[in-house]
Transketolase
Amino acid sequence: MTITADGLRAYGYDDLPGLMSLMTGDEKHGPAATSTLDVLWVLYDRVLRVTPELRDDTGRDRFLLSKGHGPMAYYAVLAAKGFLPVDWLPGFGSYDSPLGHHPDRVLVPGAEIASGSLGHGLPIGVGSALGLRAQGLSGPAVWVLIGDAELDEGSNHEAIAFAGPAGLERLHTVVVDNSSASHALPGGIAARFEAAGWSAVTVDGRDHEALYAACTAAHPGRPHVVVARVEPKNA
């Protein structure tokens, strides 16, 4: 943490573990949260065109957390970036806290969707990208973060199969792969997306420079997926 010229606190990546440590209690889904930490930071720090001041702007990028059953890292990053007060974090999961075990878009500033049920985020992302295209808004990007276990859900495969032929170029997905999927995918996760016409890159999900390069890679005319490999959930 640093202090800016106007006396405000500014948080960086190194502050995130401390912010996450403020969130205590049961049912934290710790591995689900920590697996997403680096991806979330790179997106909010370097990729997404959204700030607390622009969170209702029609030209903003949309970030949809589908992997919402372990939102501690998400809340920590939102707090670090000024979307919500840091002093909300210790109340995580308590009866009267806006920070529930699954994010609620009505209660969490900056959250685009309520999430936590596996398989919902990517279909919503497809609809969001289609809606923006129908409105003639070619600037905003739609980003969806899903876990590899969500690929066990048929709703995601329908979304993948539709988005490629539809040429949803402004749709982006990050799959955090911590080896928790029940069903193996021949050729790996990226191959499933490529077969449906997506651009795909697989990287180390802890390497910030590799994540940034993958997230900003050109993919004209196609949706784009970044497969971010992290340590296995049960390692």
Remarks:
- The two ends are 31 Å apart (CA to CA).
